[in-house]
Amino acid sequence: MHEPEREILMSGNEAIARGALEAGVGFCASYPGTPSTEITTNLFEVANEFGIHMEWSTNEKVALESATAASWVGIPAICPMKSLGLNVASDFLLNLNLSGTGKGGLVLVVCDDPRGHSSSNEQDSRFYAKAAKIPLLEPSTYQEAKDATKRAFEISQKFEVPVIIRCTTRLSHSRGLVKTGPVSRKERKKPEIAKGLFNVPSPHLRHRDLLDKLEKISSEFEKTSLNVSGTGGLLVLTSGISSLYTKEAIHRLKPEKTTHLNLLTTYPLPKKQLTKALKQAERVLFIEENDPFLEDEVRSLAVEMDSPPKFFGRATGDVPRYGEMNTDIVMTALAKITGQEEKHTKSREQFKDLIVDRPLTFCAGCTHRNFYYAVRKVKKRLGGKLVVAGDIGCYSLGVFYDQAMDTMHSMGSGIGVGSGLGQLQKFGFDSKVISVAGDSTFFHACLPGLINARHKNADLTFVILDNATTAMTGFQEHPGSGTQAKDLHRVDIERLVKAIAPDHFKRENTIDVIALINLLHSTVQKDGLKVLLLDGVCRLEEVKRKPGYIGDTPVKIDRSLCKGEKCMICVADFACPALSWDSETGYPVVLKHACVQCGSCITVCPHKAIVEGE
Amino acid sequence: MSDPFSILVAGVGGQGNLVCGRIIAEATVMQGLRPVVGDTFGASRRGGSVLTHIRIGKQDWGPLIPEGEVDILLGFEPVEALRAAAKYAGERTVALVSTLPVPPASVTSGAKPYPAINDIEKALDSLCKDVHLLDPTSVIDRLKSTRVLNTFMLGILSTVEGLPVDSKNLRKAISTVLDSSVDLEAFDTGAKELG
């Protein structure tokens, strides 16, 4: 990524990292989250060479606070996060905007996930730029992702405000050619902290000053020529990756008198230039990812026009109001507006029986499966009177595992929701409550909820599924992870939990599924706050750490004991992907290439037909 | 060539889709053209479908192929090939599909049978211009690795008429990205497959 100036293939995320490098970034703090993670991992790769401080912070708020500290003393800082991460960091952001970023420069990159490919919502994070009244750049190509990041640092350094770069999944996770520039090798000044880094006693005056800055930034954005040609026709206004879809749609449909205008700076808008463009148009179509952000901004701008053009977009229903953008959607909208015939694709419904679903599942040997299998059994034993409040991580897949999880929202909300559920007995709520969190999530957002549950004597079982890594996003280090860089200090989950003094605490492994069922069953029936710290294994991480690694308990099916079709518990109920039903013989088979030889399935078979052996 | 020229790779996590996309992209650059490669994988490491959209042209095109606009469909798995074809195949589409199934959970659990390969072929035939079903078993057995599936399929791809990327650039890109003689052998085997 740090090669000298030439044209190379980069993903949007790599291009952003490269842009930061060219801008002379000195500090990067981040919490992993798809689709943003690779920005930080790419910077990690070159950190030593360029003297960049890198950290996976405990959560996005801490990341933003740390990055800001660097900017305050004059060190250019970047803070990449996913959409939902900005919700966590927003409390600080909406104070920092007023006090400013000092001389270093601070760029906050937020990667939104339209359609929620790897997210639990499809929020549009651009509204945070408007809420915080700070500049927003939306790159639309790989080249622009790099260039805009560099420019974002310049704007931040000049106006001492944080600048948001908004990317979306498709730009983050696709690649194209990028012409690189020189990496900044400027010598850094001796760090000195800026003054007056607080907003009291007159936050309203800080607000006034920020509005002044915003005006100046808007004028700065006016200087970029928008190159609007074409008059009197249809103007298609776009931002972000939608620009490439629009280009393609126009190329294919070739509608008459149509101009395409893409905006990099979507907040604050370059109002004069944009008004000029609007005056030349009869109709305007908005194509952007997620919500009608640009659309609403431009509509409110047009209120001041004598004869505004007619607008088409999400507000008018010409573009779908949810889901992800693509070229087909742009073509449909363009065809409708310009009166062209829409192409009708043949119905392909007739193949749906052949296209068998491929649902997500826990990996072969994943200990999360063992835990959720135990949850399902305990739920049955309690006649269904068990509520499981889940959380964010690989173990979120519990919702696909016979709905072993009942709730799943934001980071740390499992224990928060559990804390509430565990106090509803006085209203006659008679279900047992389990809250679940993984180790990285535990550090990210679970401590306030757990302390609240302790303080209020909530009746619940908090289960920490500890596989000692941030598994879902690619094994990033966190305070409790099994491997730590030399200069980091491991924080012990057990000691932390014990300091909060739950009524019952037990640490156990998760390999013996029957023992796990019994432990969970007896624990949920105790009164008070119970915490189970379950040591698990991420099989992907294990193989990454020890290539070719496999466990020491190979298994096989003893057909003399197997009940075949009458049972099928191992394949249909436990459903490890290394166990497969063979319809020809009527017996399950062990898939050697998939099995990690953990031996957990041995305890699952009630007929003792899964036995150790090759 | 049609500009953009679009290749769609359909498979499941771990089959080498992403590497395949990288190889075609590198070869495209060697050819003096601009590639855009979009991967849609979600949480694919946990057994899901993976699609790689490759656009080749004189300019950057969108990272998603529009419906019906696929020039070549590389199917690494029969059901995944059909899933992709049902959404993206059209009158220009040439489908190259590996017949080796990776059964999804609904099949390994015994709930459903894996569809018959003949039925998948018929469905693909009705959706695409040309369909070639290819059995990679012998090359996988000979080279003792399921990982050569993607380079074997790339070898077949290299012989499709109208591909804007030369076979020698694809071969060179495999050396650059993978640096493995086994993969070059798989590529060469694939290149002879369609005769």
Write up this protein.
The complex is a heterodimer of chains A (614) and B (195). Chain A has 614 residues and is an alpha/beta fold. In chain A, the strands form six sheets. Chain A has a seven-stranded mixed sheet with strand order 3-2-4-5-7-6-11, with helices on both faces. In chain A, strands 14-15-16-18-17 form a five-stranded parallel sheet, with helices on both faces. In chain A, helix 2 links the parallel strand 2 and strand 3 (53-56). In chain A, helix 1 runs parallel beside helix 2 (37-50) and helix 14 runs parallel beside helix 15. With 195 residues, chain B is an alpha/beta fold. Chain B has a single domain (5-191), classed as Pyruvate-ferredoxin oxidoreductase, PFOR, domain III (Pyruvate-ferredoxin Oxidoreductase, domain 3), CATH 3.40.920.10. Helix content of chain B is 41%, strand content 19%. The longest helix of chain B is centred in the N-terminal third of the chain and has 14 residues, at 17-30. Chain B is globular and about 50 Å long. Chains A and B meet through strand 8, helix 9, helix 12 and strand 20 of A and helix 1, strand 2, helix 2, helix 3 and helix 4 of B. Strand 8 (174-179) of chain A pairs antiparallel with strand 2 of chain B.
